[in-house]
Amino acid sequence: MLLSEHEQPTAVHYRILALTWAGWLFDFYDLILYTFLLRLISAELHFGRETHALLLGASLGATALGGMVFGYLADRHGRKAVLQWSILTYSAGTALCGLAGGVTSLLLARVLTGLGVGGEWAIGHALLGEAVPPRLRGRFGALLQTGAPVGVGLAAVVGSFLAPVIGWRATFILSGLPALLVTATRRALPESDLWQVSRSAKAPRAGGRRFPPSLRRQLVLAFGLAVLNMSSYWLTFTWLPTYLVEERGLSIAASGLRILVVVAGELLGYASFGFVSDRFGRKPAFSAYATLMAVGLVSITLLWPAIVLWPPLLLFCLWLVGFGTGTWSNFGPMFAELFPTTLRTTAVGSVFNAARGVQLLTPLVVAVMARRYGLGGGIALAAGFALAAAAWVWLLPETRGRRIDV
């Protein structure tokens, strides 16, 4: 019996969830930590916003290549081994950031981090999606996705409270420790039995091509959804800590605490999305959450002067921004359900991370818009992308409860 054929989740299912969750937590932590260290890095290396935008964009752009390369390798050599390679890659990149002496070396380190980050997400979600019973796939995928807000929260705590004490270099070096997670992964994580079956059966690729015509429309539509959702997210979170400090006058600590309110919303949004999507469908759930994020974004930017007069309302709107990012819990299960096993990590890794690679431009867009409209104006643009994603998802098929075959 395959793991996905069990009626109830077993200890093996929870072990896979725990290890892939930890890998994704530190993956996202390493990617976003830089945004909480901007001011400290600038104080030593004298970088302007455009330089930071380049470095942030480079790491996001590198995730596209990482997703394609590691995804392809995982379809050929297995989920387990390649997941370990990706974790080692992003951990090494993060540690090397602490040793950088200038723009060039820091750029190379951020690119290395991005390569590893791009590989981990698709492999972890594919492995979990292939193991979990169809009726539970949405909620298990959502629980895996909660690693992202926990990673943001950890980055907020480390960047806001630890980094000012030990310095940004020591913070980066210390953040390379997730490489130790590979030891636990090697010992306790099973290989995908569905991938093993497909490999032993030597299942032919449809039409003998990497991406047969029947999948191309789904690839394009999935890519569009990922681009819109990611644009909304990265337009917001790349500059949100800096926006709260520089344009709204909060201290670094106060900004960090406000970010933790957003993180609290993210945790509930990510976790609840799986139950909502398993009950009502992937598409209705996605549209609802994306719309709520748009409402929160407009509130904390364009309507800031009004809501700041009532602190509980401000905190609620920040929380709402986080809750709306629960849309991320849609991508792992839905994308796993869209593509066959022989192409799954290649397709999911390529689509998701190519979309993330497009985000090379989003830090630059906000930096340019900030010259005229301030950081708030750039972040407000994210609301439009959130609403566009809420509409775009209806172009894709509903996949709730779909059985994953070889």
Describe this structure in words.
With 406 residues, this protein is mainly α. It has a single domain, classed as Growth Hormone, Chain: A, CATH 1.20.1250.20. It has 19 helices and no strands. The chain has helices spanning 11-32, 38-45, 49-77, 79-97, 103-131, 137-145, 147-166, 168-174, 181-188, 193-200, 213-237, 240-246, 252-280, 282-301, 304-307, 311-324, 328-338, 344-358, 362-392. It is globular and about 60 Å long. It starts with 10 loop residues before the first helix and ends in a 14-residue tail after the last helix. Mean pLDDT is 86; it is low at 203-209.
Give a concise summary.
The chain has 406 residues and is mostly helical. It is built from 19 helices and no strands.
Feature tags:
406 residues; mainly alpha; Growth Hormone, Chain: A
- Tell me the series of helices and strands, N- to C-terminal: HHHHHHHHHHHHHHHHHHH
Low-confidence residue ranges: 203-209
CATH class: Mainly Alpha
Shape: globular
Level of helix content?
over 70%
Query: CATH H level: which superfamily?
Result: MFS general substrate transporter like domains
CATH arch. level architecture: Up-down Bundle
Strand content: under 5%
How many helices? The count is 19
- Structural class, from secondary structure content? mainly alpha
How much is the radius of gyration in Å? 20 Å
Main sheet properties: none
CATH fold-level name:
Growth Hormone, Chain: A
Number of discrete domains? 1
Counting DSSP E segments of at least 2 residues, the number of strands comes to 0
- End-to-end span in angstroms? 14 Å
Average pLDDT reading = 86
